[in-house]
Predict the 3D structure of the following.
Amino acid sequence: MGTALRERRDEEAVRLFLQIQGKTESPPELEMLAHLKKTYGLESAKQLMHAFACFGCFYCKQGRETCPQCEGRGMREENIVCEGCIGMGLSRCGFCNGTGWIALGCIPAGFQVEVLLLRTKIAMERCKEILNKKMIRPTAKNPTHCFQTYAQHLLELDGIMGVFEETLVNAKSLVKSDHHLGDYISKVVCQGVKVAADCEKRRQKMVQWIIQSNRFAVDAKNMNPEEQDLARARVEFYEDLAHREKFVDTSLEHPFLNQAFQKFIGKN
Ligand SMILES: [Zn+2]
Ligand SMILES: [Zn+2]
């Protein structure tokens, strides 16, 4: 495992670690991290935590799977947008909550606090990047491209929000196993929820821009009547979605975050 870490083969290091575990006289799970630092050094231990944190989910590709309700078409019938995936054709993976990373429960207990904190940190940095990304407002010139860009951005934000939701949901039990980190974890949870609220704001903006780009498509001269009908159906669908509470009853809803927005920042 040491060689794999040195050679930056992170995924392999995780697999090797899991193979070693249980075979040799391993220390108890909760003492594993301390043991790792002592045996392989601090840097290698940190690298292994990072490898665990970013280990890909076994069941999906980057947090998404084909929507079972529309089989990936985004439409249930002709000109009826699929409610489940809000017309994206992709729904959130239930195993990783859309994060694209293996569920926390699959990670050795002794690493979970570290991994959770690390994931939140990675998500914060990623979020800064995503929210700072320059988005071009909807234009009449290329409405289809605009729509696709906003839809992709929406899904990207959803994945990041999944990380903050995982932190929120798991924090309580992890604080129990690691009392001295309690205040710190609570602070991290709070920061995560605040950033998630910014993501939610951006998602709402994307819905507005999706509506506008489809309005442009309805009026576009170079679109055929079928494409215009589809755009019209989308305008209607997303207008309705914009009036509803934060993606409720769709696969883009984050129920725990929605509750937390109210509790942590008084927003609903
Ligand atoms: Zn669908
Ligand atoms: Zn997954």
Q: What stands out?
A: The pocket of zinc ion (ligand 1) is lined by residues 67, 69-70, 74, 82, 84-85, 89 (CB under 6 Å). The chain has a mean pLDDT of 89.
